[in-house]
Amino acid sequence: MLALLLGGSALAQETFRIAIGVDADSLDPVQGTTTTIDNIVDYMAQTLIGIDENGALVPVLATEWTTSADGLTMDLTLREGVTFHDGTPFDAEAVVWNFERLLDPNVNVPRRGPYAPIESVEAVDDLHVRLHLTQPSPYMAGALTQTTAAIISPASVDMEGNSYENITHPVGTGPYAFESRALGERIVVRRFEDYWGEAPYYDEVVFQIVPEATTRESLLLAGQVDMIILPPASDIPALDANPAVEVVFGPSDRTIFIAINTTKPPLDDKRVRQALNYAVDKEAIVQGILFGAADVMDSPMAPSLFGYTSIGAYEYDPERARELLAEAGVEPGELTLDFMSPTGRYVQDFPASQAIANYLADVGITANVRTTDWPTYVGTITQGAESNETQLHLLGWAPAYLDASQQMLQFQQSQHPPAGLATSFYTNPEVEELIAQANSTVDEAQRADLYGQAARLIWDDAPWIFLWVQRFPIVHSADVTNVSGLPNEKFYAIYARPAD
Description:
- By secondary structure, this protein is an alpha+beta fold.
- The chain contains 15 helices and 23 strands.
- A 7-stranded mixed beta sheet has the order 8-9-10-1-11-19-12, with helices on both faces. Strands 14-18-13-17-15-16 form a 6-stranded mixed beta sheet. A 4-stranded antiparallel beta sheet has the order 4-5-7-6, with helices on one face.
- The chain is globular and about 70 Å long.
- Residues 1-12 have low confidence and may be disordered.
């Protein structure tokens, strides 16, 4: 069938085409900031540890890993018989070089934070590496699953277009090797015949850059691509009913919320913030506006994260909202809020914001929704507290790896703008202490309990209107199979193949 769709050429039969919405700002593993681009880099450069479809840690370039009882050293055993795409060997010295580059302040690494406790990396022998840590860092194995820690060939920095500070042509150990790139159009990878693991089916994978969701959908339905991500949400029911394609709702760790500026009266009163939560029917918005592409939050983090605890829900209860507002001294009709929303950054973001404003109006709050381009939006909400005039804004947060420590960055004073992205300016000393303990506690059960305690306090303090955990829609031709999603909002199609 694919041959018919593609005109029957032998080459086209062996090509898998994926349409994505954004071009790569960088193909250098350490410089990545976008999950979609990390997804492409993963075809070429692999991490020491990975995750499976359930979020469990699995061996990749490391076959075993252990942490010392005091939490200050981590030993990794490397996979034997692995070579980089340039033919050089993957060994402990290559791993050490990659970590030293990752930690080098002269290299731009936007997501270096989780690796800050690494004091040094030692090559014990060719197949064993030891990380020396300045403090117990029980999340480190999870951090090693992030594409930022993917391993590239040290020799590849001398390739044309590459430098130590910036890699444009990633040379890793993955099942596919970099082939070509046309800016704003496509990135092409070709199957690596000496790959250490199971060989993928397709000779070539082409990532086509198609910003418009409707255009991606049209290309898929016309047989001009084999898979797309993020179709128009309003078309998901029709796509689901179309036998020519299959819709996969990939799990995601991306929480969508309304950040409440907790420094601004009367939003500094938690009764008002709780009232905002009770006022909004999130389930109705998920079903009516997001077409089921999300799950209502029942905790300040997604269920896929280590440390998640289900707390409950702020059920839709407008009467309770009115009671809380009255207790806080807010009379019906006297509160007007400025409400910023992006357009097109998240699934149905602006229509959802408009619906939320309507729900707030029902309890006597006027929320004036406005939108702007994304760079201006980010620049506005990330101003420091003294100059930040925002009151409500919609935002999404997707931890790069599945650990509560990454979600809790949103609730720590050290992450208030401009230092970080905790744009509600929320702080609670008890929460800070619980997070600090959890981040350095080696015992997993105790650590999970500490995050759970912190989550309950945050839920009660309500620095956000807790909305939903976004799902990650993937649509592919019914003529292919072996396409799924991972809990860190990545698609998994390396082993896609024609359906029987």
